Amino acid sequence: RQNGAAPDHRGRVVAVTAAQPGTGVTTVAAGLAFGLAGNGNVVLGELGAGVPELALALTLTPRHALAELIR
């Protein structure tokens, strides 16, 4: 703290991407998120359109579409 100011808690953004589908991006992103979760809070999101690969890989049912979360 400097001059009584609130502490600065900035997060980090990590993007996992590939040039073509089927290269393991979902697996790598999920593994990275689970690994980092031991250090605190982690948000894992999928920005691709179409089939929710991340939800399927983690056997989850998506509750919100990306458009809803952006609002």
In words, what does this structure look like?
- There is one protein chain.
- The chain has three helices and no strands.
- The protein is mostly helical and about 70 residues long.
- It is extended, with a radius of gyration of 16 Å.
Key phrases:
3 helices; 71 residues; mainly alpha; 31% helix
Q: How many distinct beta strands?
A: 0
Report the helical percentage: 25-40%
Shape category: extended
Largest sheet: none
The assigned structural class equals mainly alpha
Overall pLDDT: 83
DSSP summary: helix tally: 3
Q: How far from one another are the termini? A: 33 Å
Low-confidence stretches: none
Q: What is the radius of gyration computed over CA atoms, rounded to a whole number of angstroms?
A: 16 Å
Beta-strand share of residues: under 5%
Order of helices and strands: HHH
